[in-house]
């Protein structure tokens, strides 16, 4: 989850030689899950999580930002998380072209933990799509305008479905995200208490491979973030709607989304509410310099009354020791596919007989 920037840019680009920096991370993961009887019998499992490579470079005023990740075969193996070319017009304005982060909601993350918040599992947190984005940042305001032609396209056949082997959750199956417009505005105020109050909107198409017609999808978000001393609070509310042009008799109340090699159903229309709070404590414990405690909560309110809502809560801490970052999380979910549920309909119809399930997780990463 860590993102490291390595350079600042001046308003004048007199650079004669290319500059390139290579970074990355290696992570391992331990987990013990309440719904896996065999795993509980052996005291959990510890293994490989991910290896990534980051490339940042610049030449003649144009710079590149790319990150490639390699997971195990069961989680989609290798894929590009992000990769874009940028040009900075001045100290306040720049443009990015390629696989760039979608400007929607609190960023970079709407969470503090390793699992992210519930928004991530609907493609609404740390999402990246293919397009062009304009960024403006000054002392009081930040605003983004963007156009995304489509999500990451890995299969270029005329009727090919979107592959679920990706980092960001996107619509998969017989519908494809196309021609999406995004706008985001943030107002910043306060001195000792820093505040970020914002709104985001997105609108795009859903091209159906069967009917060859284009439906629509839109999202509206209100978000607020506050920083006070070592405290951070994130509040967010989103209204999400999908209206696909499916075949006659095929439900429009459910869409399919996917990432990490796993597709699943999601309710077409829902509200999602999140609250995330953290407290950082500087310490001197050998190599450990900081411990951040947090709780991140998410609630998916599905608009179809017969659907069962979904919940997620993660309580934990991030331990910083030099270049090693360790997340210790207790993640609980109700109708959450990744937390004791199924990878079919937890985020769509849901299961009224579901119970809360939990996963104790430790993720250890060396970032270089």
Percentage beta strand: over 45%
Please state the structural category: mainly beta
Task: State the shape.
Answer: globular
How many beta-strand segments? 19
**Helix fraction bin:** under 10%
Instruction: Please give the alpha-carbon distance between the first and last residues.
Output: 13 Å
Q: Give the SSE string.
A: EHEEEEEEEEEEEEEEEEEE
Strand order of the largest sheet: 1-2-3-4-5-6-7-9-10-11-12-15-16-17-18-19
Largest sheet: 16 strands, antiparallel, barrel
Q: Could you name the ranges where pLDDT drops below 50 across 5 or more consecutive residues?
A: 1-14
- The chain-level mean pLDDT equals 94
- The count of helical stretches stands at 1
Indicate the radius of gyration in whole angstroms: 21 Å
Question: What tags apply to this protein structure?
Answer:
368 residues, 16-stranded antiparallel β-barrel, globular, mainly beta
Quick structural summary:
The protein is mainly β. It has 1 helix and 19 strands.
